[in-house]
Amino acid sequence: MPEKMKAAVFRGEKDIHIEEVPVPEAGPGEAIVRTTLTTICGTDSHIWRKEYPVREGRIVGHEPAGVIHELGVGVSGYQIGDRVVVGAITPCGACFYCMNGQWAQCAGYDNKWEPIGGWRLGNSMDGAQAEYFRVPYAQANLARIPDGLSEEDVLLVTDIASTGISGAESAGVSIGDTVVVYAQGPIGLCAAAGAKLMGASLVIGVDGLDYRLEMAKKMGADVVINYRAQDPVAEVKRLTEGRGADVAIEALGKQETFENSLRSVRPGGIVSSLGVYAGKLEVPLEPFIYGIGDVKVVSTLCPGGKERLRRLMEMVKHGRLNLRQLLTHRFRLEQIEEAYDLFSNQRDNVFKVAITP
Ligand SMILES: [Zn+2]
Ligand SMILES: [Zn+2]
Question: Is CATH 3.90.180.10 correct for 164-299?
Fold first, then answer.
């Protein structure tokens, strides 16, 4: 067993670089996975810019596929060498929140809830942009990759597909609904895919970049709107006989897209908010119909756990969901600085980068 490994370590603003660190060891209930493929998340870019706090020296990354390398005491039903994915959110499966079905809000065995506490990898513990990483609560979080699927096919179930699709699920999209999705980055694209899978008759994708709107048509949108050329709210109204959409999904985390989402739904409609907002979010009264329009606003954090991942991988396996097409760029782990620069600055029409140790 190698004693040292390469890992991407956060050291300060725009400083995530490769260091040699010890290979982690599995404690009781844990596993060590040898990473075969991983990627960079928008949240990692926030860490890279020092906009989201993690401690200096933290190994970053939370979207991995790999092979089981070591199993700690008490983890059963798995073999060394099994191909697995592990979600961004690693619930314990036993706390108050997990037992109530809110996996993302997991408070861990010590039952101490913190915001995004279920997000551990690359946040409150070392993450997966490394040759090996430690999986907490392994029994609840090691999800075997079905035979016939590659790491590339399923990598994005770990975060963006789970998050994006949950935007449609939390809104309870029904057969025949019109759904508008604000922002067509990786998460918004998966939200559009989720809305279509749940039976929406019309999915409208809004963004300001044409290459994203092109991808939106491949992922689930029937109609796309470039907000630089057209007023998206007026266009949504036009497409729905003046009523507004049944559901609007906000997938960016900005005041403007939240407000446009409110303005886009009909009375009794649902705004499903996926974005992570900074500072203050205001609810203007007129589009909120003065609080008496029967409008619902729901929010969701990436659902985690192996059963969630199994379900999403089944969708990929049976051709309902194509996530591989979002992996537009490839890097080796040693090139992680280049990958952060490209991804965080959204250069070269990037959607997601595939990183191979
Ligand atoms: Zn993420
Ligand atoms: Zn829990």
Answer: no
User: How remote is the CA of residue 40 from the centroid of ligand 1, in Å?
Assistant: 8
Query: What pLDDT shows up at residue 2?
Result: 63
State how far the Cα of 143 lies from the Cα of 78, in Å rounded to an integer: 10
Report residue 76 as tokens: 């059963």
Q: Three-state SS for 113?
A: coil
Q: Which CATH number is correct for 4-159+302-356, 3.40.140.10, 3.30.590.10, 3.90.180.10, 3.40.50.2000?
A: 3.90.180.10
From the CA of 140, which ligand is nearest?
Answer: 2
Ligand nearest to the Cα of 159, by number? 1
Return all residues near 71 (Cβ < 8 A) that are at least 6 apart: 26, 31, 78, 80, 138
Over the stretch 113-168, which tens digit does the pLDDT of each residue have?
Answer: 988 889 999 999 999 999 999 999 999 999 999 999 999 999 999 999 999 999 99
Contact 86, 143 (CB under 8 A): yes
- The pairing of strands 202-207 and 178-182 is parallel
Q: For residue 41, report the distance from its CA to the centre of ligand 1, in Å.
A: 5
Centre of ligand 1 to C-alpha 148, Å, is: 26
Every domain of the chain and the residues it spans: 4-159+302-356, 164-299
CA 139 / ligand 1 centre spacing (Å): 22
Look at residues 300, 226, 298, 294 and name the one whose alpha carbon lies nearest to residue 266.
294
261 secondary structure, DSSP code: H
The amino acid at 337 = E
CA of 312 to the centre of ligand 2 (A): 21
Q: Which ligand lies nearest to the CA atom of residue 95 in the structure?
A: 2
